Amino acid sequence: MSTPCSENRVHQSAEVNSPRTPNNQTSWRKPCPVQGERPAQAAQGARGGGPAARQATRPRVEPRIEPTRIELLAKENAILRGQVELLETDAKLNEALEKESHLKKVEAISDLELQLALKKVTEAETGHRVKQLEEALQLQKESQWELETNLTQTLLLLKKSQEDAEMNLAQQRETGRQLQAALTESLTQANSQQLQWQEEKGHLLQALSQITSSLEEMRVVPKPKKLSLRKRIAQFFRRSGGQ
């Protein structure tokens, strides 16, 4: 069971271990009587006795142990150093993430530029091939017209060679039709390839957008390691080719 005197002792021990504040300089609690005396007997002894009795009943005040200002400053400095170290660690981590993100962006842009350059080269080669076929067809048409003119003159001059001339003309016309068919097929293939390149370009742009969004998310929350851009693009084309 707790008594006022025991509570007073607990309060005094708390004051000794706590730093001094303007409101904690003096204790408002009354001193406890000597152990073994009742509160009434201690009070009666204090009233009836002389100076020796009053001195015996006077409480003993323990010296207060307070932390010095240097210790408080040392603790504050230690806390501040810990906070500074945490901030430096966060700054280094953010810098590393930014560098990794920048390198991945540069790699993605380089791959896209390479793909576009290859497409431009292929388109240029196809255009050159179409131009060659058109020139060959034009030359064939001119040659056919000259041949027809010569055949007309030859028919007027040499009626006997009419069958041979007609056969030769038929062969020339067949060659012209074959060239025309080849040109038509080449133009169709060129248009098909151009549509396919445009579709692949759209897929590449979509993949680039997805990669950019993933990189933006990686700046905030670290994610597990993914495949490289080239492997992802190759995997994407394999899937598209399989469909």
UniProtKB/TrEMBL annotation:
Residues 14-28 have a biased composition (Polar residues). Residues 1-64 are annotated as: Disordered. Residues 35-45 have a biased composition (Low complexity). This is Uncharacterized protein. It comes from Liparis tanakae.
